[in-house]
Amino acid sequence: MTHKLLAIGASSSRKSINRALAVWAANQFDAQVDDVDLNDFEMPIYSEDRQAESGIPSLAQDFKNKIKACDGIIISFAEHNGSYTAAFKNIIDWVSVIEKDLWEQKPMLLMATSPGKRGGKTLLELAVSDFPHRGGKVHSHFVLPSFYATFDRGIKDPVLKMEFEAASSVFEKALIGMETD
Ligand SMILES: Cc1cc2nc3c(=O)[nH]c(=O)nc-3n(C[C@H](O)[C@H](O)[C@H](O)COP(=O)(O)O)c2cc1C
Fold first, then answer.
1. In whole angstroms, what is the distance from residue 8 CA to residue 104 CA?
2. How close is the Cα of 80 to the center of ligand 1, in Å?
3. How would you list the strands of the sheet with 31-36, edge to edge?
4. I want to staple 70 with a disulfide (CB 3.0 to 4.6 A). Which of 6, 43, 86, 152 is the partner?
5. Residue 116 C-alpha to ligand 1 middle, in angstroms?
6. What domains does the chain contain, in order, with CATH numbers?
């Protein structure tokens, strides 16, 4: 069965290496891939006052609908100063006030990459521990360091390639498990 996967590069950069990695990873599966561009979900900076005055923007509901409609989610995070990019954080702040179960218990493969040697590991560790508290079923995760040396239309480094394959196979089993539930 073909799965519906959301591929999210958690960056608003037009040349995002994380979006490239997320979309590439999603295309390794027998899947219909929804390549999410965070620029399509730009909203005012979240505040409780703004929510009380103007309500929740319809773009937040559109993003939520994408989560509801998919079978699994692959996110690759850009790390900005050790944390989520402002673009990603603002979207999840708005979506999180629609319903408590932000990620809808969908199977997730979380990744991060950067040009540096840590590859966004600090943020990935934060997301892996935090997402389960927000309805995310994080089945596996993978960090790709030194993106420009390790990736060119696929993972070039053999050890990192094996690590990705191990992570993706755990995620795939979770997707298949959903079918038999
Ligand atoms: C404001 C800013 C903060 C950054 N902070 C970090 C960081 O904390 N850790 C890191 O590994 N890279 C950091 N970087 C470098 C990014 O990893 C790099 O720009 C990468 O390409 C971002 O991924 P993207 O292309 O998917 O947006 C930062 C870049 C910017 C512009």
1. 16
2. 5
3. 31-36, 3-10, 72-77, 107-113, 137-144
4. 6
5. 9
6. 3-180 (3.40.50.360)
